[in-house]
Each structure stands twice: as structure tokens, then as C-alpha cells.
Design goal:
The complex is a heterodimer of chains A (377) and B (529). In chain A, 42% of the residues lie in helices and 15% in strands. With 377 residues, chain A is of the alpha+beta class. Chain A folds into 3 domains: 100 residues, Helix Hairpins; 146 residues, Cupredoxins -  blue copper proteins (Immunoglobulin-like, Sandwich); 98 residues, Cytochrome c-like domain (Cytochrome Bc1 Complex, Chain D, domain 2). In chain A, helix 1 packs antiparallel against helix 2, helix 2 packs antiparallel against helix 3 and helix 6 crosses helix 10. The chains are: A alpha+beta (377), B mainly alpha (529).
Chain lengths: 377, 529
């Protein structure tokens, strides 16, 4: 009978969860005090439901087995009992009170973002994450790793089983220290996303134009994986989150490398901005920039998605005056097309504009040098 | 109670239906319109079901095998819109049209021409919605909740989807007005409010919910339309608006909406269980009060769909407490059903089997609903397959089982023929088992961390998804038996008595009319003692 199966299933779910935190069957216990409190709350309510279920399904099963016409039962005629009805209204109310008290405590804990040791700003993009370390000036994007990305294409013929951490791996993980209270602030650049790492115990929506916040204090060094949880368009299923929690010493070392790299990159960009590039150089660089920043909407073949995202191939913008083209790439257009002047440097913008004008068979023949990109950036 | 005899009816000059196809276009008869609604709902159930099979086929294995992720999102969006607005709501409207006049001793609905119009808006609404599939950029792909800014990325599909929703809303509001007016004005002498059958009561409360929330939804989607095409910024932060405002408006509609789908189910089950337990419904008045309480509470709990949007702490706590409260009246209903069965003399014909499965599996969905009401725990559950499992448990073995139960229950009355009980039981067991194979594993994949609305997933979710897909295909194809049983009963079969079910005449006026009932149902109002 399906009800027996359900009961067994519910019981199995509970037992396994209690014996060892099995990731595949039950909620993870996670690696923060808050996530464990949420897990305990989950188990507590689950057991209360199992207990009520045993009583209700038990009575129902007894009735179905015994109160049958085929057993010659003469039906009773009772149709109300005020005392009984008051009892089964009041008792559930009391059970709910017993759930509300711990729930309130945990919710207050989840909302206490005060006295944090550091702040990371998380920005959701279609379809990648951007992490900005507000205290240290580190800023990078985190996208689906290349192997998963190759395997996940329609008709790729690559067995996902052969890809390590299929769809749960990124190029640049978010690196954080353990035992520090990290405050996360969330926002989004285009549509609503939701940042969810089960091991931290929560998810938070990232909303364009608004800032939401949450916090975590991770106990154990390790790699914790999650995904975007709010439908955000075509590649919603392909923007994972990887958090790498390091010991304080390892984290400081990582921080130092990142800072050095950031400085070197900035210097490089300044030098490159005044350099003059050839068409093939710009095309090569432009293709990489295009695939990382434009292809999600305008597609790798430049044909866009009719009705949603305009094509670059044969587009009047790519074949028109170069200034207007540059202006759209730098400043954006309408509600959907973001401006890239703040996320790409001059070389990248020059390269991608050049690529769009000469790739996809556009063959416009002109090119844009980084020095021609205005410096408002 | 008095009954109209066959002789009485034949004495009348019978102005029956028009001949041919035009009968269905011009009809103002509540039973004809009921049949139109029910047939449309059944067709849309298969259309929406086919879309869900596209989804389940893609999710059978990790990796993308069949469809583009963009098309996958169109399928999840249309599947939900069609099942909610095309299958379940019209099906209940069909039951209301067929049964309410008969159950309260009326000749027809109070506003028959309005009735015709409210049905005939539907095919046009669905044509608008379905046409988006053939447009550049495809159908809406932002989920049935149509959240901005994502939904505004859609191309020309947006106005079509929105006008479709407008038409569906007008249709629902007119149907609701008609039902309220009928119940308030057309009751037979002696049929006081506290003697109304539970199905009529639950529909009365549902009709009020519809009138109160459909305009809010229509308003919210109209704001989407002006944001996209007329430069307003209701939901655009850059213009001073707020994307989350849409979510509040949507769920102010959306939460009562889910009760619009489930309250008439409660009514159906409250008709069936007493009939087959051969015992009066336990706690009739507490059932009425519980239904009304659920209806009222449904207006003050909407933001429990938004625990992760960053509401203030006080908001989170308020919505947690208010949502938990719904468990009390819902519990009362479940306890009353069990008490109705208790010490009855039950038999287990197909409608009773589906009704019992409803009580068991809806209650199960209620438990996961209670878990999700706890806001801190929902920070984990939200937007995962755990939620998908929850709402499918309350909507499929919940609302859909109630609809199937109602069909088997009243089919002999509608057609005048008994359906094939052996096939009905086969349909029940295939459906009841496969629905659990389909949705039970989704609890596990959700808890283990699988987000909803993704076309592809990490390999640790593979086993549960494969099981779910197998269950889905068995479930889907089992419903063809249902269609066969219905067609077979329409064409012929053992003639049904007026009472149909043993002792049913004590359980409602519909069992005192002939099977099938005369064209104008109760031409002479029965006297209810």
C-alpha cells in the first residue's frame, strides 16, 4: 500500500539523517553553527510530522481494514463530538507553539549580521558570479569550469560521470578564511539570482538595485559547492558556486598573491592601453572576451536568439559607425544590455568591438585601438 | 425530500438542446457548459502533461540529451500555467456547473448567458498562450510566477501571455460571480446555508477568493506590460521601482490561488467519503468553519513564498507564525475525514479509492508544507526539488486525485451508465503507485541540494531523477485508461439507477434526479426538510 511505503520512506529519511549526515538523502548538517541549528530544526519538525503521521495514518489504516461493509459492519450514525473537535483543534495549536519557539531563535540568529570580521560582495550576473572583497580590493568573476561547460552542451556526447564535479565546479572559487564571521552582501546586475551553498545553511536572493545580506562562520577548511537557486534565464542551471575555506595562514597567503596579481594586471593594462595592436591580435583577444561576456546572450556564433537577443552577425551596429558601436558596448542599451566600461578594461573593449566588426563574416575591415577607448572607465 | 418523477418531466414541453455543433457554441445550459469545461480541462491536462514528459525525459539522465535549456524553461513555465489555469481550474468550474444547480435543487445557474461567455473565453485565452510557442524567441520562460526582470527579457511572447491571463481572469471572475449568485439565490426551499453540501460550500468560498485575487494578478501583469512597453518602472530599481514588489503582488494572488485549486477538492472528498462509509460527514459545521478559516488565512500568508528575498526579521517571523496556523484548520479537515470513515461500513469503489488516496497523500503534502512554513528551515528548502515534491503532492494526488474521484463518482449520473469498475481500479492502482514513484524521490534530491527549474544536474542526483522520470511516464500513460473508461461510459454500459451508489440518496439531491438528469435539472424545486 502506498501509505505504508510513505511511512517507511519517511522513517528511512529520518533514520539515515540521524545516523550519519548523508548528503545524498537528507539535508546536509553543514559546516557552520547556523547550518547545524537549521539542520536540527529540520530534523525536529520532521520527527514531529512522523509522530503525527503515525497516529493519523494508523487510525486511517485501522479503519480501512476493520470498518468494511464486507465484514458485515453496521455503520454507526454519530456525526459530531464537540469535545473531540475542541481537543484536535487545541492540541495541534500547542504543537505549533512548540515549533515556533526554536524557529524564532534560529531565525534571529540567521539575521544577526553584526560584528563581522570581513565583507564579501556577491553580484549575480547572467550566468556567473562576481566576488568583491570589500576590505581588500580583490574583485573577480567565477564561472562554470571549462570541462563541465563542454560536457553540458546539447549533444556533446561527453558522459557527465567522467567530469569531476560536473556542473558544480568553477574557474575561480570564492576563497574565505575559517573561523571568521563573514558578512555577505548580495546584489545583481541583470535579473534576480539566488546564492546557495547548502553547507552554509541558507540561500539568499540577489536582486538588481537592492542589497540583501547574510553571514557565515565556517568551522572546517574545505571546498563547499552550491548553485544558483532562482530561475535566471537560459543558463540558470550552469552557474555553480564554489567556496574554498582555508586556514587563516593559507588565506593570508592567497590574499597576498591575489593582491600582487591585481596590481600587476592593472600595470599591464595601463601599458597595453597605450600600445598599438594588429587586427589578428585584437581578433584573438576579442574572441576570448566575446565568449566570456557576450556569447551568453548574443551566442557564440553571433546569431543571437531571435525575439530575445539581437544578432551581432550582420547587425547594423557592427557594420555602422564605430563610435556608436563602442558606445553601446561601453554604456549598454535599454534594460537588458549592460554597459561594460566598468567590468572590462580598454584593451578588452577595443578587442571585443574589433572582433564583433570583423568576426561572424561581418568583415567590416576597421579596428579599434585601446587608446581610442575613452577614459571614463 | 420530494423527488421529480419521470412522468412529471415528460408532461412538460421539452425544449431540449439545439442540434449539431452549434448546440455547444450557443448553449446556456449548465450541464452542457459543465461538459465543455470538463472536456477542455481533460485536453489541457494531456497538453500540460506532455510538456511535463518533455521535462522528465530531459531529466532522466544527467547531461543534455533532447532540448535546449531555453526550451526547457519554456516547458516548465507552460506546464505550470496550463495545469493551473487550463486543467485544474476549468475542471473544477466544470464540476461546479454540472453539480451546484443539481445539488441545491435549482434548474440551472443564475446567469446562463454569462456562463456561456465565461467558458468561451477560454479557448481564445489558450490559443493566445499556445501561439507563443511558435514565435521568435519562443514561449515565456521565466516560470509561471513570471518574475521580473527575467520575464521582461522575453520577446513578443510577453503581451500574448499577459492578454491570455487577462482573459482567463475575466472568465474566472464571471464564473465566480455566477456561482455566488446561484448559491445565494437559487437554493430549493428548506436548503439553508448550513444544509448546503460541502462541495457547494467549498466552491462558495473559492468563488470569493477568485473575485478577490484575480484582479490583483491582472493588475500585476499589466504593470509588467507597461514596464516593458510604456516606460514605467514599477519593478525596475533603476527607475525607482522594486522587483520584489511584483513578488508581493503575485503571491497575494498566488497563495489564495493554490487554495482555489484545493478547496473544491476538499469539497469533493467530503461528498465521497460519507457516501461510501454509509455514514454522515463527521463535524459538518466545523468543516464549514475550517474551510472559511483556510480561505481567510490564505490572504495573510503570501510572503512565505519569499523567505529568501531579504524581508525584515519581523516580516519573516510574522509570515512564519501565520503560515503555521493554517495547519490547524487543515488538520481539523483531515481528522474529520478519518472520523467519518471510523465505524462506517466502507466499500471501496474507484471514487472511494481515489478519495482515500487523496486523504493520505494530501496529508503527506501537508506535512512537508508545515516543514516549509518554518522560515529558517525554508532557507534550505526554498527553490529546491523538496518544494517541487511538496506542491506536486498537494496538487496531483491532491487536486487531480479529487478531480478523478469526482469524475468516477458522478460519471454514472452524467452519462446514465456505470463505468467499467475493473478498469477504474486498474487505473487507480497504476496511478497511485506511479505518482509516488514520480514525486517521492524528489524529496530526497531536493534535500540533497538539487535546485528546481534546472535542465541538467550534478551526477549525485541521477538515481532519484531516473526513478522520478520512470514514474512520470507510467503516470502519464495510465491516464489514457481514464479517458477510455470515460468514453466507454458515455457510449453505453450498464444503466445507472437514480441513486447510483447504495444509500446515496441520503447524501445529496443529485442522487434523487434520474441518471442522466433531465435537460433543465430541477424544473420543480424539491422541498428539503
Amino acid at each position: 500500500m502506498e501509505r505504508t511505503k510513505l511511512l517507511l520512506g519517511a522513517a528511512a529519511l529520518g533514520l539515515v539523517g540521524n545516523a550519519h549526515a548523508e548528503y545524498a538523502l537528507n539535508l546536509t548538517r553543514g559546516v557552520t553553527q547556523l547550518s547545524r541549528d537549521i539542520y536540527d530544526l529540520h530534523m525536529y519538525i520532521l520527527w514531529v510530522c512522523v509522530a503525527i503521521g503515525v497516529i493519523v495514518y494508523g487510525l486511517l489504516t485501522y479503519s480501512v481494514l476493520h470498518h468494511r461493509k464486507s465484514k458485515g459492519v453496521v455503520p454507526a450514525t454519530f456525526h459530531e463530538n464537540t469535545k473531540l473537535e475542541v481537543v484536535w483543534t487545541v492540541i495541534p495549536f500547542l504543537i505549533l507553539l512548540a515549533m515556533a519557539v526554536p524557529a524564532t531563535k534560529v531565525m534571529i540568529e540567521a539575521y544577526d549580521t553584526s560584528a563581522s570580521d570581513m565583507t564579501v560582495k556577491v553580484t549575480g550576473y547572467q550566468w556567473k558570479w562576481r566576488y568583491t572583497y570589500l576590505d581588500d580590493g580583490i574583485d573577480f568573476f567565477s564561472t562554470l569550469d571549462a570541462k563541465s561547460n563542454e560536457a553540458r552542451q546539447l549533444g556533446s556526447k561527453i558522459n557527465p560521470e567522467t567530469v569531476e564535479h560536473y556542473l558544480l565546479n568553477v574557474d575561480h572559487p570564492l576563497v574565505v578564511p575559517v573561523n571568521k564571521k563573514i558578512r555577505f552582501v548580495f546584489t545583481a546586475a541583470d535579473v534576480i539570482h539566488s546564492w546557495w551553498v547548502p553547507a552554509l545553511g541558507w540561500k539568499k536572493d540577489t536582486i538588481p538595485g537592492f542589497v540583501t545580506e547574510a553571514w557565515a562562520r565556517i568551522d572546517e577548511p574545505g571546498v563547499y559547492r552550491g548553485q544558483c537557486a532562482e530561475l535566471c534565464g537560459r543558463d540558470h542551471g550552469f552557474m555553480p558556486i564554489v567556496v574554498e575555506a582555508k586556514s587563516e595562514a593559507d588565506y593570508q597567503a592567497w590574499l597576498a598573491t591575489q593582491k600582487a596579481q591585481t596590481t600587476a594586471k592593472a600595470d599591464e593594462a595601463v601599458t597595453a592601453a597605450s600600445k598599438s595592436f594588429t587586427l589578428p591580435e585584437l581578433m584573438a583577444k576579442g574572441e576570448a572576451v566575446y565568449n566570456a561576456n557576450c556569447a551568453a546572450c548574443h551566442q557564440a556564433n553571433g546569431e543571437g536568439i531571435p525575439g530575445n537577443f539581437p544578432a551581432i552577425k550582420g547587425s547594423p551596429v557592427a557594420l555602422g559607425p564605430i563610435d556608436e558601436h563602442l558606445s553601446i558596448v561601453a554604456k549598454g542599451k535599454g534594460a537588458m544590455m549592460p554597459g561594460f566600461s566598468k567590468t572590462l578594461d580598454k584593451v578588452d573593449i577595443a578587442a571585443v568591438v574589433t572582433y564583433q566588426r570583423n568576426g561572424f563574416g561581418n568583415d567590416k575591415g576597421d579596428l579599434l585601438q585601446p587608446s581610442q577607448v575613452p577614459s571614463e572607465n | 425530500m420530494s423527488a421529480v418523477t419521470h412522468e412529471d418531466l415528460h408532461d412538460h414541453h421539452d425544449h431540449g438542446p439545439a442540434k449539431g455543433f452549434l448546440r455547444w457554441v450557443f448553449t446556456t445550459n449548465h450541464k452542457d457548459i459543465g461538459t465543455l469545461y470538463l472536456t477542455t480541462a481533460l485536453i489541457m491536462f494531456f497538453v500540460g502533461g506532455a510538456m511535463s514528459l518533455v521535462i522528465r525525459a530531459e531529466l532522466f539522465q544527467p547531461g543534455l540529451q533532447f532540448v535546449d535549456p531555453g526550451f526547457f524553461n519554456q516547458m516548465t513555465t507552460l506546464h505550470a500555467l496550463i495545469m493551473v489555469f487550463g486543467a485544474v481550474m476549468p475542471a473544477f468550474a466544470g464540476l461546479a456547473n454540472w453539480m451546484i444547480p443539481i445539488m441545491i435543487g435549482a434548474p440551472d445557474m443564475a446567469l446562463p448567458r454569462l456562463n456561456n461567455w465565461s467558458f468561451w473565453l477560454l479557448p481564445f485565452a489558450f490559443a493566445l498562450l499556445a501561439s507563443t510557442l511558435f514565435m521568435d524567441g519562443g514561449a515565456p520562460a521565466a516560470g509561471w510566477t513570471l518574475y521580473p526582470p527575467l520575464v521582461l527579457q522575453g520577446g513578443n511572447n510577453l503581451p500574448f501571455a499577459i492578454f491570455s491571463i487577462h482573459l482567463l481572469g475575466i472568465s474566472s471572475i464571471m464564473a465566480a460571480i455566477n456561482i455566488i449568485v446561484t448559491i445565494f439565490n437559487m437554493r430549493a426551499p428548506g436548503m439553508t446555508m448550513m444544509k448546503l453540501p460541502m462541495f457547494v460550500w467549498t466552491w462558495l468560498i473559492t468563488a470569493f477568493l477568485l473575485i478577490l485575487v484575480m484582479p490583483v494578478f491582472a493588475g500585476a501583469v499589466t504593470m509588467l506590460l507597461t514596464d516593458k512597453f510604456f516606460g514605467t518602472s514599477f519593478f525596475n530599481a533603476a527607475g525607482g521601482g522594486d522587483p520584489v514588489l511584483y513578488q508581493h503582488l503575485f503571491w497575494f494572488f498566488g497563495h489564495p490561488e493554490v487554495y482555489i485549486l484545493i478547496l473544491p477538492s476538499f469539497g469533493v472528498v467530503s461528498q465521497i467519503i460519507p457516501t461510501f462509509a454509509r455514514k454522515p460527514l463527521f463535524g459538518y459545521s466545523s468543516m464549514v468553519y475550517a474551510t472559511a478559516s483556510i480561505g481567510l488565512l490564505s490572504f495573510v500568508v503570501w510572503a512565505h513564498h519569499q523567505y529568501t528575498v531579504g524581508m525584515p526579521l519581523a516580516g519573516e517571523l510574522y509570515f512564519t507564525y501565520a503560515t503555521m496556523l493554517i495547519a490547524v484548520p487543515t488538520g481539523v479537515k483531515v481528522f474529520n475525514w478519518v472520523a467519518t470513515m471510523w465505524k462506517g461500513a466502507m466499500t471501496f469503489e474507484t471514487p472511494m479509492l481515489f478519495a482515500i488516496a487523496f486523504v493520505v497523500l494530501f496529508t503527506f503534502g501537508g506535512f512537508t508544507g508545515l516543514m516549509m512554513s518554518i522560515s529558517p528551515a525554508d532557507l534550505q528548502y526554498h527553490d529546491t526539488y523538496f518544494i517541487v515534491a511538496h506542491f506536486h503532492y498537494v496538487l496531483v494526488p491532491g487536486a487531480v486525485f479529487a478531480l478523478i474521484a469526482a469524475t468516477y463518482f458522478w460519471l454514472p449520473k452524467w452519462t446514465g451508465h456505470m463505468y467499467d469498475e475493473r478498469l477504474g481500479k486498474l487505473h487507480f492502482w497504476l496511478t497511485a503507485i506511479s505518482v509516488n514513484v514520480l514525486f517521492f524521490p524528489q524529496h530526497f534530491s531536493g534535500l540533497a541540494g538539487m535546485p528546481r527549474r534546472i535542465p541538467d544536474y550534478a551526477v549525485q542526483f541521477a538515481e532519484f531523477n531516473a526513478m522520478s522520470s520512470i514514474g512520470a511516464f507510467i503516470f502519464g500513460f495510465s491516464q489514457l485508461i481514464f479517458v477510455y473508461v470515460i468514453i466507454k461510459a458515455i457510449r453505453g454500459g450498464q444503466p445507472a439507477t437514480d441513486e447510483v451508489w447504495e444509500g446515496a440518496a441520503e447524501h445529496g439531491l443529485e442522487w434523487q434526479l434520474p441518471s442522466p438528469p433531465p435537460y433543465h435539472s430541477w424544473e420543480v424545486a424539491p422541498l428539503v426538510k
